[in-house]
Write a structure and sequence with these properties.
Blueprint (H helix, E strand, L loop, with lengths): L7 H12 L5 H8 L3 H13 L12 H4 L3 E9 L4 H12 L4 E6 L6 E7 L2 H13 L4 E8 L17
Helix pairs in contact: 1-2, 1-3, 2-3
């Protein structure tokens, strides 16, 4: 994995786009103090280099449906590179699994899932976790209150 060199203008663009990716190029250029053509070239380069993975709308789950957030720890029996990758691919196909992290010291994976209710959670666990012979342990926690949720990462210049 190679990093992309970022200068101060790139940092300003990324910081602003993480706050609001719906800005027009004209508005973004004005905010970051660049000309619109320069801003557009920079954004295009950041997209093509993979620094900007995608531009999305973040939906507040409590505004659209009653949902249950599950934080799930998964420990596998066999942790070979192939078996870890197989697990990641399988949970990657699950629409209710929003995030999957391979972690060290403790479980092998931590998943964040958003399901409609407990029956949907049990179906997910059975379908994606316990039906798999390589899963040794599943431990789940359920969110009772979300006090903070951010997607912004701190970006610093590297060039």
């Amino acid at each position: 994995m190679t990093t992309v060199a970022l200068d101060e203008l790139d940092v300003r663009i990324l910081t602003q786009m993480q706050k609001d990716a719906s800005l027009t190029n004209q508005d973004l250029a004005e905010i970051v103090h660049a000309s619109p053509p320069t801003c557009m070239r920079r954004v295009r380069r950041l997209i093509e280099s993979g620094v900007i993975e995608k531009q999305i709308a973040i939906v507040a789950p409590e505004k659209v449906a009653n949902t249950l957030t599950a934080i799930i720890e998964v420990t596998l029996d066999v942790q070979t590179a192939e078996r870890l990758q197989q697990f990641e691919q399988r949970v990657g196909l699950e629409a209710t699994v929003l995030q999957c992290y391979r972690v060290s010291t403790g479980p092998d994976f931590v998943l964040i899932a958003q399901v409609t209710d407990m029956p949907a959670y049990h179906a997910l666990v059975h379908r994606a976790l316990t039906a798999e012979a390589n899963v040794r342990n599943v431990r789940s926690f359920f969110s009772v209150h979300r006090s903070k949720f951010e997607t912004n990462i701190t970006v610093t210049a590297t060039a």
